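Appendix B. One record, verbatim.
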Amino acid sequence: DDWLAHKPREPSPSQCCGSGCKPCIYDAYEKELAQWERAKAKQDKSLLMEKKEQSSNSELNPDTFTAFSVSSVEQLTEDTYQYKFELPGNSSLRLSLGQHIVLRESVHRLGHWEEGLLPLSSLRRTAEGYFEVLMKHGELLMLASGTGLAPMLPILQSITDDEEDETFVTLVGCFPTFDKIYVKPLLQDLARYWNIRIFYVLSQETSLEKLPWSYQENTYTGRLNEGLMKTILNSCRRRPFVLICGSSSFNEDMSRYLRAAGVEENSWFVF
């Protein structure tokens, strides 16, 4: 039982975005499991300390999860919280442009650690000695262009995987043509959930007649402009928190449209 308490937990299918990440979350799990099996075979728990030593480094390791302590929590809106995590000394995460992080919480209960993927996390700021993350429940509007869809998928899947999570999500995926839409089967499966809406905006399509009938009702031709943005915002049950990911020009356009629609800047996040 003591060894089982140290055994890494296998990720659930919803924790993998299916985008072919290198390394994948399953790669990290397999590495941790192999380390645990070696330690258990030799009955030497000191071999598990390698993971803890790595967690003290300021640079993130893509193969393992790294432990950080929460130094403060600030409520920004009714359902948005900003978590501040400590970093040793004046170090920083050293993330490159376009990189993102996956968070996993560990809670100590009844003598053992329980872990789970956080329902939604967006890196807000990284600086010397700390980094900040937004946590959001309620209603979300996701604006993704092309491969900007990638960071949205783990968030969507974590919401649908949790039966108690009632976050309402509207995803707007912007692509040149219907053939360029990524992971169509996964998106169609997600759209079947009561709290998930998915719209497509196809900039190079001129007609919806050639599209499958199941896509015609929730697809727009042309570009996601200021007018369409207002239409989508008005279709939300209440003013949502917005996540944006795409090219620099796409991100700038979306931010400008949100300002024009009266959305406050602390109510959106750009990946």
